[in-house]
């Protein structure tokens, strides 16, 4: 690999013997590889190698007696029939069809509202909605956890003052929505900014004519602006898919408040962590991580494909 | 000269507070009070937990339980801060420094690698370019969390776990940063400028460092900020990689305190410390955020518009 870095000076000294075009081209190849190479060295060692290693691990098993041996697809078959893993994936699927559309819809709504020019305090609102993105997931979960809490959470205090029991934030059903709310709170602003930036870069000619013709702002948003920012929307959906299946911080910290509700496998990622570090089964954890990656790839691909189909429509 | 980069490039990016396109003036529309009131109610929702955090940070542990959560009681903020900074021999300060080191080193490294690679992809044709870029794009979909456990196992073999490298090295490769910088470099650096430098006999790498880098700066800062936030806020990677409390970043440290506080009635006195520590931990990023927000948008615009 290091020969690529040295290629440029070598080419320069040899240049006169060759045609001018080739020398310049080779010099440019050398420069291009030098620029791209540092990233790819890190990329290969930090992404590709762990990926291949996870793939390798997932086909082996470790026994207390007998050591490590080839297991074929055993770990994968085990995972696909593991109720703990499947229930986690199911929970994330609910996230995907409930929380992600809700989050993107609100992000789009805020972006359109800020872009419409019909709002007062737009700049302040934009900052306030975006600022949760700067708050670490750990702190966001801590704050909401205390807000939900039965001891000194204000909602529980209000409900106690009204003479009823604590709100069901931390129950089996409530937890799903409580965690959805934390994710919404943290990421609506982030997605809003992506969409808003796309809206701001649209040329106004695109809808000036419609406005002159008397189209309402709602109509302009629906028929002109939303189709025009479709690539940005696609980006937010794909990032949300990836983020959803990686959910870890929120359930892991909520487990300190409601250990029995969260358990060890609330999200597939939490389960993979517990399998690797509590059960000490790296091989099975690798298979879980790999399956999770495949699920994410498939869902992202389906999202992209359905988008292309819609774009292809006349 | 020092302002040349941002000024030149700002023509290519929407500035959020100015009309984006010529002849466009959003403020011209009549104000809709219904819309304004509705959005402001939503803003209240986004600010509620932060307001609660500020209020709760001013309370003693006893007041947390005995007073209403969304309003002030006896002012105890300074005692709380003192307890955060001195608890366990001031380990909180150590965590803050660690978070800063992890985030700053990772962010500068990731930003530089992304900028160089993005520029290389945007401005050069070379054998294997299409394949390398396709791999990079495909890798955006790879969930980093799926890589963390295998990375840990590899690092354990290499003796790298429980070191600063264990956090910094995996944070350096950001495929999305390369994509973003390629899109950005395509517009921000004029091909004629590169040609002119070549005619003057400037070497290819010198063109990158002396001409292009300055024009790429706004895009690079966007990647830097993303990486900074991602590393500062990361919990999964350091949780797995680190054992020594002295090497923890703030996220792992605060989560540790929280589990101690929630763990038993004897350690209840820790709640006000955890809450005040949380407040202190988000101040640097929130401040950096408000001052640098222009850069978020510009970078996101190039990524989102052309994705």
CATH class of the largest domain in chain A: Mainly Alpha
- Total DSSP helices of chain A: 15
Number of strands of chain B: 0
User: Oligomeric status of the shown chains?
Assistant: heterodimer
Number of domains of chain A: 2
Instruction: State the end-to-end CA separation of chain B.
Output: 32 Å
Radius of gyration of chain A: 26 Å
Major sheet of chain B, described briefly?
A: none
For the record, the CATH architecture of the largest domain in chain A stands as Orthogonal Bundle
Which architecture name of chain B does CATH use?
Orthogonal Bundle
Shape of chain B: globular
Rg of chain B to the nearest angstrom? 24 Å
CATH fold title of chain B: MetI-like fold
Q: What is the mean pLDDT of chain B?
A: 84
Summarize this structure briefly.
The complex is a heterodimer of chains A (314) and B (307). Chain A contains 15 helices and two strands.
Give me some keywords for this one:
heterodimer; A: 314 residues; mainly alpha; MetI-like fold; two-stranded antiparallel ribbon; 2 strands; disordered N terminus; B: 307 residues; globular
Describe the model.
The complex is a heterodimer of chains A (314) and B (307). With 314 residues, chain A is an all-alpha fold. Chain A has helices at residues 2-14, 20-58, 74-80, 83-116, 122-130, 137-148, 154-161, 172-200, 205-212, 217-228, 230-245, 249-257, 259-262, 268-277, 282-312; strands spanning 60-63, 67-70. Chain A has a two-stranded antiparallel sheet with strand order 1-2. In chain A, helix 5 packs across helix 8, helix 6 (137-148) crosses helix 8 and helix 14 (268-277) packs antiparallel against helix 15. The radius of gyration of chain A is 26 Å and the shape is flat. Chain B is globular. Chain B has one domain (78-306): MetI-like fold (Orthogonal Bundle). Chain B has 307 residues and is mostly helical. Chain B contains 14 helices and no strands. The chains are: A mainly alpha (314), B mainly alpha (307). At the A-B interface, helix 2, helix 4, helix 5, helix 6 and helix 8 of A face helix 2, helix 4, helix 5, helix 6 and helix 10 of B.
